Input
Amino acid sequence: MSDVELPTVITAITNAQIEGFVAGTLFAQGWSVIYRAIDIESLESYIKSSPESARGAILIFAPDLSGITRERLHSISATVKQLLGFSDDPTHDGVLGELHRVPTTATDLISLVRGFVRAPMLRQSTQLSRQGRRAHVLAVGSAGSSTGCTTLAINIAMELSLFEKATLLVDANFRAPSIAALLAVRNVHSEAGWRSIAPSLSIAEISQEQATTVDAFMEQATQSFDHIIIDLGSISGLSNRLTDRRWTSTMTTWSCDQGDELMVVARPDVLGQHRLEQVSSLIEKTSIRSALSFTLNMRSQGRKGSDEEARFLAITTPLRPLNVRVIARDARASTAAEAQKSTLIEVNERSSLRKSIATIASEIVR
Output
């Protein structure tokens, strides 16, 4: 199986309601359910007759499967790609090994299975629980290129820090990390943790080395900061990336499953509109736990800007986003900040772009 293919699935669950929920949900997300076992004998028979298919599949089982034992399950584990067990009472059924409580929603199921494919040893509490953590997590992703999402991420983080909220800015744009360069900070990529660069503001960059420990890093970060802003860069091909086990997809998957808000940023020109339509179509077909918002950046003035905004709203409002935001074009402010390797408030705190971003920060601060 290639790294970008959706995994195949075998179900081995007697309870028809739970099995139907699992199989139906995964199938609706594009996963191939290649066999649905009704007892341990039929499962073993299928694996024996189709060893190649079984070898690439995730076996999702439950303790109610007739004839299942720890020994037989252990034997089967060598013939499939991975095992994932669900139970209404994981502690009581623990004789079969580590089990997860049956998810109650389709989004939680998809999130858990995606995370399990990415890192099989993760515990359920890491995968599903956002309760009790300190940080509010906003991930900023670009619908295409040159949308200004990195500028937004940097300056939202800066504005939040001005509220004296401990804020972490994470560069997870694996294709083109740029936050350190835009802020004239050196060697961030070589550090395992984060670095303080201003009062209440720290930055981190997720490199290939750090990608293997993203879950542990983010668990620590969400308990250490009030706000975390993640620059994802382009999120084109989102559905494939959410089941892609390559290191370049780790933060996108984490953000969609564990983030509080995914902000998709688009630009207003024809190509920007086309990219937004593509991303919106993918999101419509993909379950993510994070709340969704859209931002139209660099809106033109006058009638042209009104037309751009109308097209933007026509694409995004059917997805019922948490927020829809529009930011007017302010090339002078963004160019000055880039030239001086500074944030907008340091260059021109009265610029329209800075004021728009400050408004966004005031909406999400807590």
Residues 121-128 have pLDDT under 50 and may be disordered.
